Amino acid sequence: MNATEFLIRNGDVFDGSGSPAQRVDVRLSNGLISEIGTNLKPQGEQIIEADGLIVAPGLIDLHVHVFSGIGLYSIDPAEAGLRTGVTTMLDTGTAGALTYANMARFIMPAAQEDVYAMLNISMIGAIQGHPDFPPFMGDLNDGRHAHVPSAVACVNRFPDRLIGVKVRLTSGLANYDEKNEWAGFHGVFEAAEQTSRPCMIHHAASRIPNTSVLQALRPGDVYTHLYHPHPDHVFDEHGAPLDALWEARSRGVLFDVGHGVGAFAWRTAEPACQTFGFWPDTISTDIHHFNLHGPVVDLPTTMSKFLYLGMTLPDVIRATTSAPAKAMGLQNRLGLLKAGHQADVVLLKREFGSFPLTDAEQQVRFAAERLVPVSVCKRGHWSPCGRNV
Q1: Of the candidates 87, 74, 75, 26, the residue with the CA atom closest to the CA atom of residue 53
Q2: Are 50 and 123 contained in the same domain?
Q3: What pLDDT is attached to residue 197?
Q4: Within this chain, do residues 48 and 155 fall inside the same structural domain, yes or no?
Q5: Is residue 332 part of a domain?
Q6: So what's the pLDDT on residue 177?
Q7: What is the rounded end-to-end Cα distance, in angstroms, of the chain?
Q8: Gap between the Cα atoms of 348 and 4, Å rounded
Q9: Do 323 and 352 lie in a common domain?
C-alpha cells in the first residue's frame, strides 16, 4: 500500500499504556497518528478494517542481534522486524567500538525498521562465543577488550542511535577468568556514567555474584535474561525473588526477558510470575541465528508465553510497546497510540486452541491462546506479516 492516509476501524485498540482495549478508530496521516476517536468520519483515506483484531502500537523488541554479516549470531533486521509486527528494535551489544561504525553505515540505514543499539563494552562486540563453533572465545576473552575510552568515544561519535552500553557477564565468555568479567563489569558502568546513558547487563553462569550486579544497577539500567535457568539467577531455591531484586526494582532498575536460546526457562518463570508476582518490565526475544526457528521464533510468540503465565493482555502489550520505548528514551515518539506519535501500528490476531510453547530447555507448555501478527504499519506504510516457522 502506497497511500499515506488511513483510517483503522472496528478493532480492539490497546494504546500501549496498559489500559484496557477501547473500540475506537485511529487515523493516520503523513506518517503520524493524527486522530483517535469514536466513529471517526472517513476523509478520503484508505480504510483498514480491523474487526476481530487487536490494534496496538508497533512492537518494540528491546533485545535483538541484527548486525548481519558480523560473527555467528546476527540475523537480518527484516527477519526480526516488520514481518513479525516489530517496528523498532534494539541491538544489544553485537557491535563494539571497533565495529559499530559499519553497523551505523550499512545496517541501520538499509533497514525498514528503526534499529538502535547498545554498544558492547568489549571493543570486538559479540561476534563469537558459541560452544559448538571452536575456538570458543567471547567478548571478554581478554579483559583489555573492555576499553572504556574507546566505548565513550564511539558513543559520543554516534549519539543518535547508541542509547547505552552493554556487557555480557558469563564466565565462558571471559575465558573462565574472573578478572576479565570484572573488567567488563566495572567498564560498562564507567562508560555509562561518562556518556550519561543506561547500561544493559547480561548476567548468567558468571563468577560475579548476582547480588553485586543487582546492587550496582542504577535507575533506568536494564537487567536482561531475567528468567534464565542457571544457578546464579536472581530467585531463591523456592523461586522467590531475592531481596536485592525487589530493592533494585524499587529504585527504578528495569527487568527484561531476553528469551534467547538459553535464557528463558519455565521452571524459573512459573514460580517467579505465578507464585511471587515478579513480572518483567519489558518482554524481548534476544533473537539471533540460533533461536530464530525455535524456541524464540518471534516477539509475538514470546508475548504469548507471558499470556500463558497469566500476564494480562494490556500489560503484555505495554511491555512490548510503551515500556521499551521509555527504556530507550523514545517515549515522546514511539510506543503509544497517541496523536502526534509516529504512525507505527500492528494488527494482531488472538487465536484460541492448543499451542505448544517451548522454553530454552526444550520444555513445552500448551497454551490456550496465542498472538499472531497480521499486518503492520511503519511510518504510514503498510505491509503483511509472516511468521518465521
Answers
A1: 26
A2: no
A3: 98
A4: no
A5: no
A6: 98
A7: 25
A8: 21
A9: no
The answer, yes or no, to whether residue 265 has pLDDT greater than 60, is: yes
Q: Which domain holds residue 291?
A: 59-327
Residue 104 shares a structural domain with residue 21:
no
- Backbone CA torsion sign across 99, 102, 104, 110: negative
Convert the pLDDT of each residue in 12-67 to its tens digit: 999 999 999 999 999 999 999 999 999 999 999 999 999 999 999 999 999 999 99
Whether 257 and 284 have beta carbons less than 8 Å apart is answered as yes
Give a yes or no: residue 167 inside a domain: yes
Cα–Cα distances (Å) from 230 to 177, 205, 227, 268, 271, in that order, read 18, 6, 9, 9, 15
| CATH classification at residue 304 | 3.20.20.140
Together in a domain, 125 and 205? yes
What residues contact residue 69 under an 8 Å CB cut-off, 6+ apart?
none
pTM value?
A: 0.97
Q: Are 74 and 111 in contact (CB under 8 A)?
A: no
CA dihedral 277, 20, 116, 142 (to 10 degrees): 10
Give the whole-angstrom CA distance, residue 280 versus residue 259.
12
Within a domain: residue 9? Answer: yes
Asked whether residue 333 is assigned to any structural domain, the reply reads no
- 235 with 109, same domain? yes
Alpha carbon distance 305, 365 (integer Å): 9
Q: Which residue stretches of 221-351 are H helix?
A: 243-250, 266-270, 299-309, 313-318, 322-327
